Amino acid sequence: MVSRAAPAPAGAWSRDRRSPGKSIALHLTLIAASIVSVFPVAWLVLTSLKPRTVIETASVAPIDHPTFANYTQVLGETRFLTWAANSVVVSLITAVLGVLLSATTGYAVSRFRFPGFRSVMWMLLITQMFPVAILIVPIYNLMAGLGLINQFPSLVIAYLTSTVPFCAWMMKGYFDTVPTSIDEAGRVDGLTPFGTFWRLILPLAKPGLAVAAFYSFITAWAEVAYATAFMTGDDKYTLAVGLSQFVGQHKAEWGLLTASSVLIAIPAAVVFLLVQRHLVTGLTAGATKA
Fold it and tell me: Which parts of the sequence belong to the ABC transmembrane type-1 domain (predicted)?
């Protein structure tokens, strides 16, 4: 005998079906949000393709004769490539050290209870509350005392002060979702605590590591305040500081600024595409308790 599923309640279909008015409102909201999101990017790209004479007239007409002159000037007549290389070096070092420090710290506070545990947790939380404007002066004095002004290590250290507390707290939440039975199995097999972390736990934490790497990279890639204060030589500028060279006292080179902004966005977009499948899992890990 073939069993039949019980019929749905009479009002179930009407409850699930969205009314025309709600459907129209939802679609209009999504369209408006899409326009708001896409417009700045589209304006940036289109402006970068306009000749300087058209930009200076503040014309909003469509581009009649698009040109790559702004890109050619940025890449050939400025130190953009030097600034880009500096930003890549600083961002990659910050990302690697940020992931290493935040992962080890997050694992330690997730698995072990030691003297000062609560103090460490409070420190990770409170240090995220200080704005950059408050930290610039003390960190600058510290770096000056160490002779690191106009050196890349000063930027890396400054960026780690903001990325490690956030990423460590996030990684702690992620490691809390990993069963402790895996650690116990590692100890039974003779692994040390670090061996258990490195060989068993870390491979399971790829989503969390991806978020930590992405956050650390983007923080260093787009940061302006520390780089402006610490880097005094044109050959040590990062991209965010280098763009300020296109803004004069009475005039801004909008063609160069927009072309540079498009080029700067490309590496960030590439990094996002590489880690995007891990971002949602990594960001939501620890949000619910198993």
Answer: 84-275
CA distance 140 to 143: 5
Question: How would DSSP label each residue in 176-207?
Answer: HTS-HHHHHHHHHTT--HHHHIIIIIHHHTHH
Integer Cα distance of 105 and 144 in angstroms? 28
Q: Global pTM?
A: 0.80
For residue 174, give the amino acid letter.
Y
Q: State how far Cα 223 lies from the chain centre.
A: 11
* Residue at token pair 């408050």: 134
Q: What is the domain partition of the chain in residue ranges?
A: 14-73, 79-284
Q: CA angle, 80 as apex, 212 and 275 as ends, to 5°?
A: 20
Residue 96, CA distances (Å) to 33, 58, 90, 212 in order? 35, 43, 10, 9
With bands split at pLDDT 50, 70 and 90, how would you rate the model's confidence at 142? Answer: very high
Domain 79-284, CATH homologous superfamily name and number: MetI-like (1.10.3720.10)
